[in-house]
From TrEMBL:
Gene3D superfamilies: 1.20.1530.20
Protein name, entry field: Bile acid:sodium symporter
Organism annotation: Stagnimonas aquatica
Entry coiled-coil feature ranges: none
Key words of the record: Membrane, Transmembrane, Transmembrane helix
Transmembrane segments: 14-35, 47-68, 80-102, 109-129, 141-163, 175-196, 208-230, 242-263, 269-291
Pfam families xrefs: SBF_like
InterPro entries (alphabetical): Bilac:Na_transpt (IPR004710), Na+/solute_symporter_sf (IPR038770), Put_Na-Bile_cotransptr (IPR016833)
UniProt keyword Endoplasmic reticulum present: no
Keyword Membrane (UniProt): yes
């Protein structure tokens, strides 16, 4: 049976926790103050309901169900299960904005979806991860509780700190955000460079072709679920496109620090998250191109969607 080589990076979980804290601090610094009191004003209720149901209920729930039913117990400890869980419970990311603009989708819905994901992710991502780890790996309850508390602290505190700094010292927000973004980029580059040493010897169970097939099939199912939900809610075409794009893009800036925090020596978990992130960007680009070329529609100006 294939084994997952150790990654020669971040042996100290506090380093990964600091990496994660930087990502959430940057999120808190960029969250618009006007979005905090009432996100409901950013998008229609049906679209918000559809987006939240796909991002935080259907995709994580179906992924967890597939892991429990389809993945044999001996394969759950090889990093694949954790990688799949992280992909499913880290929705959002502002990368979908560029694709939505190109595809002439509803920019306001995509932007609001990213903001909602930032707020809910601080609570729901640790909750889904703890539930997934309990269902797939069945760890001792003290260890599971410790992991859940660590995730909550690593997400809630920096996000709240960023919001407080933005309110307390608004003049310094932009400068501090640039500094934090630079640190994140440097940390991510260092992690990727060092991870290449461990990934070079990785032999996933069933080979790379099977892992790539799993990546593609999972994402196709996510897009189909999002399209079905959008049509069932009778959304307009730009809103349907925005919902599908927002549901299909992963927040890699959050998923990568989480995998380094939870499994710093598991190359398969890291490879799974990285492959999903690259694939989702490629798929979103191709989908946007197809919509732009074959089913054009008038864009909704971003200024009309903002409060």
């Amino acid at each position: 049976m294939s084994t997952s080589p150790e990654l020669p990076l971040l042996p100290n979980p506090l380093v990964a926790a600091g990496f994660l804290a930087l990502v959430l601090l940057a999120a808190g610094l960029t969250l618009p103050p006007s979005a905090r009191p009432g996100l409901h004003g950013w998008l229609p209720g049906r679209a918000l309901l559809g987006l939240l149901s796909v991002q935080w209920l259907l995709v994580p729930g179906l992924t967890l169900l597939a892991l429990v039913l389809a993945l044999p117990p001996e394969a759950r400890s090889q990093g694949l299960a954790l990688g799949l869980l992280l992909v499913a419970v880290t929705p959002g990311g502002k990368g979908a904005l560029a694709f939505a603009l190109f595809a002439r989708a509803d920019l306001g819905l995509v932007l609001a979806g990213a903001l909602v994901a930032l707020l809910l992710g601080a609570l729901l991502t640790p909750a889904w991860l703890s539930l997934g780890i309990a269902a797939t790996l069945a760890p001792p309850w003290p260890a599971l509780l410790e992991t859940g508390l660590l995730l909550l602290v690593a997400t809630l505190l920096p996000l709240g700190l960023g919001l407080w700094i933005q309110r307390r010292w608004p003049a310094w927000r932009r400068l501090l955000h640039r500094l934090v973004q630079t640190l994140i980029a440097l940390a991510l580059a260092l992690a990727l460079i060092q991870a290449a040493q461990g990934l070079s010897g990785l032999d996933p169970p069933g080979g790379w072709s099977r892992l790539l097939l799993l990546v593609g099939l999972h994402h196709v199912l996510v897009l189909l679920v999002a399209e079905i939900v959008a049509r069932s809610l009778d959304l307009r075409l730009p809103q349907r496109r925005a919902l599908v794009l927002a549901a299909g893009v992963q927040n890699s800036a959050l998923a990568l620090p989480l995998v380094l925090l939870l499994a710093p020596d598991d190359a398969l978990a890291f490879a799974t998250v990285a492959l999903w992130g690259l694939w989702r960007l490629l798929a979103a680009g191709l989908l946007s191109l197809g919509w732009r070329l074959f089913r054009p529609t008038a864009p909704r100006p971003l200024t009309e969607a903002l409060p």
